């Protein structure tokens, strides 16, 4: 083998190693750039996690599907800026002998409470014009054939609904939005729920979210 070829081979080897190292560092960097909050939510069983500054979105499948309407998933949207005194939020044990269940609860601030009034106006409008409809649907068990129509009317009546704290429930009838008057998140694992609270506080400090 000539000296020139040997040098070229070593150069190619270094190039390949360099590309591998770059790919590895890029992967590690991408992982490190993910918010801690994202990993905590994943450990809690959530998927489709999206965190954009103070806006947090995550989903969960319901297995088995919730009867009677085959509710199969939900997506929760949280605007961290609307949380009030979240540092003092308590985790309560609401479980039973048959099932462990804990709930982290907190209030939203007065500014959000003012925005939430729009949902009450829509609620009043629906109950005056559409007799017998049980909107808002608090979960998929109360879904019926009016889900699509009410969702359409809601989006027209509340054009800024995407900035509000809400849960979207999915069932055989379609999707339905439930606006939250208070923040709450339930989980069967107390430790993971505590980690979620700590991660929210840490994330909010990093992104100047007013919790």
What does this structure look like?
- This protein has 211 residues and is an alpha+beta fold.
- It folds into 2 domains: 1-33; 34-206, no CATH class.
- The protein has 5 helices and 9 strands.
- The chain has helices at residues 3-33, 36-43, 110-129, 147-157, 190-206; strands spanning 47-52, 55-66, 71-79, 83-84, 90-93, 102-108, 166-171, 174-179, 183-187.
- The strands form 2 sheets. The chain has a 5-stranded antiparallel β-sheet.
- The longest helix has 31 residues, at 3-33.
Short note summarizing the structure:
By secondary structure, the protein is of the alpha+beta class. It is built from five helices and nine strands; from the N terminus they run ααββββββααβββα.
Strand order of the largest sheet: 1-2-3-7-8
The poorly predicted ranges are 17-33
Helical proportion?
A: 40-55%
Assembly type of the chains comes to: single chain
Look at the structure and give the mean pLDDT.
83
What is the secondary structure topology, with strand pairs?
Blueprint: H1 3-33, H2 36-43, E1 47-52, E2 55-66, E3 71-79, E4 83-84, E5 90-93, E6 102-108, H3 110-129, H4 147-157, E7 166-171, E8 174-179, E9 183-187, H5 190-206
Antiparallel strand pairs: 1-2, 2-3, 3-7, 4-6, 5-6, 6-9, 7-8
Helix pairs in contact: 2-5
